[in-house]
Design a protein that fits this description.
The complex is a heterotrimer. Chain A is built from 2 helices and 13 strands. Chain A is mainly β. The radius of gyration of chain A is 19 Å and the shape is globular. Chain C is α/β, with parallel strands linked by helices. Chain C has 2 domains: 93 residues, Translation factors (Elongation Factor Tu (Ef-tu), domain 3); 134 residues, 3-Layer(aba) Sandwich (Rossmann fold), CATH 3.40.50. Chain C is globular. Chains A and C meet through loops of A and α1 and β6 of C.
């Protein structure tokens, strides 16, 4: 199907053949917000809500039982209990986040431990491999390149807007990689596994784009 | 907005349209067996998550993933790894 | 396939809707609009190639804007298979892009696309027998109304039926007059309302959310082995199903349709 350019510069996917599809008189997207276009990736709309989407039931995780493991090639490079993790250097960032289901939320504030600080805490000058798989409670996985995590681009977040992240939003800790579509920010992260070769995670192995750059509208495999 | 996530789960019946695009027939009344815990039930009674990204159908007893389906502009994807069988 | 004419009770609907065929979009035209409550309207649609449905099924609708933008949603069918036009009953939802368009803007003569019927699991026909016990909150009553309307049209084999219906206030009770009149004419149909936020003066009915005690009082006992259907927002459905299992109803006889957080 051809992608038509809409008046606002975004593209509508799945444009129908106009002579067959009935137009619903007066219907228009209510989601065109007054946001500078430069701020929003193509096809996105701004929401004031924080929609929740999960691939499974919300795990009820007690922080006293929580650990974060860093693994590479079958070896455990490091592990933190909650108390130890909270004692690591904390960073606060403000970013826009973009979900592949088309909502974007602007200026969200998160606090946690950056990937750079995790490497430092492990005594590593650099990551042992180019790829990481995030493993989460409930079985969810997502793959991210190290290049998309270093330089402050990725963190393990524990607070949203100054408060502990709610379970429905991935608490007590979630991966946060805001420059990619938000499915890459795996909720309930428990283990980061370094991989020599890239492997596809939960959505990436089921038709979603392996990389997921919202600015290139890389929603699906083949985009 | 949901605080605890309990409102997110739907019934397998709500995935009927997406699944019928793949199976051509309505499979919500088909019996499906979970490979993890052996329990059997109708597809319509499974617990459905992740809409609208896709359909993730989980066992009503053990929460194991039985079936995943996604509709993309480039094609439809189906993964039935957790299912032992589907009986029409 | 519905056979018009004398033998309405012989209409064969059981096989036509649950068939092996690809779901196709077809053009629906709004023939009539009815205001049910301040936030709810019913839309009676004409569909050129509709092959029938089972009470409880739903359709997908798709709206297309002039610029090609599309939005798709699912709605339960409110009409029984015996009706010529297809009725969808829609509740206006806060921030609901599609429901707001339907409630605020749609006029008779407007068109959109519909595909269906969908979902053969959450269905009841008179041939499945009873007793029939239905529990709904808000717009969850819609698919259950299709079942009751179908039951009403079938004069023979009318299984006893009960609808336990939770609404915020009397003005929010969808199909209120029709339910009153159906129950009035049929001694085997009972409609029990509970109004959870606001009750009119002199209200002697229930005034709380459906809980275990209420279900125990209203439903037929588990030994009667009723066919049970529960529909509404997800938390409502989860609570009611759990209470029913605790009260001893067989979970295999309980069918649920969760509408998600916003209640459909």
């Amino acid at each position: 199907m051809t992608k038509r350019r809409l008046r606002d510069g975004s593209r509508s996917k799945g444009t129908p053949s106009m002579d067959k599809t009935p137009i619903s008189r007066g219907f228009r997207s209510r989601r065109q917000q007054q946001t500078p276009k430069i701020r929003l990736p193509p096809g996105q709309y701004v929401t004031m809500d924080f929609p929740v989407l999960s691939a499974g039931p919300t795990p009820q995780i007690k922080v006293e039982n929580w650990t974060l493991d860093i693994q590479s090639g079958g070896s455990l490079l490091g592990t933190w209990s909650w108390a130890a993790f909270e004692a690591l250097p904390q960073t606060t960032i403000k970013r826009d986040i973009h979900c592949v289901t088309k909502w974007s939320k602007l200026d969200t504030t998160w606090q946690g431990v950056t990937f750079d600080d995790l490497l430092k805490a492990l005594g590593l000058a650099e990551a042992p491999t180019p790829y990481v798989m995030a493993h989460c409670d409930g079985g969810y996985t997502t793959n991210v390149q190290v290049a998309d995590l270093v330089g402050g681009k990725g963190m393990i977040a524990t607070r949203y807007e100054g408060l502990p992240i709610l379970p429905a939003h991935g608490g007590p800790a979630r991966l946060l990689v805001p420059h990619l579509y938000f499915w890459k920010s795996g909720k309930w992260v428990r283990r980061l596994r370094f991989m020599k070769a890239d492997e596809r995670g939960f959505w990436e192995s089921l038709g979603y784009h392996n990389y997921g750059d919202p600015w290139k509208e890389q929603r699906y495999d083949g985009d | 907005m949901t605080e605890n996530g309990v409102d997110l789960v739907l019934d397998g019946n709500a995935a009927a349209g997406l699944l019928q695009e793949i199976f051509v027939r309505d499979i919500t009344t088909a019996q499906i067996q979970c490979e993890s815990c052996d329990s059997t039930g109708a597809v319509g009674s499974l617990h459905l998550y992740a809409m609208p990204m896709g359909a993730v159908l989980r066992c009503a007893h053990c929460d194991g993933v039985l079936l995943r389906a996604v509709h993309t502009p480039h094609g439809r994807w189906l993964d039935m790894t957790g299912t032992r069988y589907l009986r029409f | 396939m519905a056979t018009p004419g004398k033998n309405r009770d012989m209409t064969v609907i059981e096989t036509s809707a649950v068939s092996v065929r690809r779901l196709e979009w077809q053009r629906a035209e709004v023939r009539k609009i009815m205001v049910e409550t301040p936030r709810v309207k019913s839309f009676l649609l004409h569909l050129p190639s509709w092959l029938g449905h089972l009470p409880g099924q739903h359709v997908d609708i798709r709206l297309t804007a002039e610029d090609g933008y599309q939005a798709q949603r699912s709605y339960s069918i409110a009409s029984p298979p015996e009706d010529k036009l297809l009725t969808l009953t829609v509740e206006r939802v806060e921030n609901g892009e599609v429901s707001q368009y339907l409630i605020d803007d749609v006029r008779v003569g407007d068109q959109f696309e519909v595909r269906g019927p969908i979902g053969g699991y959450f269905v009841w026909t008179t041939s499945m027998g009873g007793p029939l016990c239905l529990a709904a909150a808000g717009s969850g009553v819609v698919p259950l109304m299709a079942m009751l309307r179908h039951r009403c049209r079938r004069r023979k084999n009318r299984a006893p039926a009960l609808l336990l219906y939770s609404s915020r206030s009397l003005e929010d009770v969808i199909y209120r007059d029709e339910l009153d009149s159906m129950a009035h004419r049929d001694s085997d149909l009972h409609v029990v309302n509970t109004l959870t936020r606001q009750q009119p003066e002199g209200w002697i009915g229930y005034r709380r959310r459906i809980d275990k005690e209420l279900l125990a009082e209203a439903f037929v006992p588990p030994e009667w082995n009723p066919n049970i259907f529960v529909c509404g927002p997800t938390p409502f459905v989860e609570n009611v199903s759990r209470f029913l299992v605790e009260l001893g109803y067989d979970s295999l006889t309980i069918k649920t349709e969760r509408f998600g957080p916003s209640g459909g």
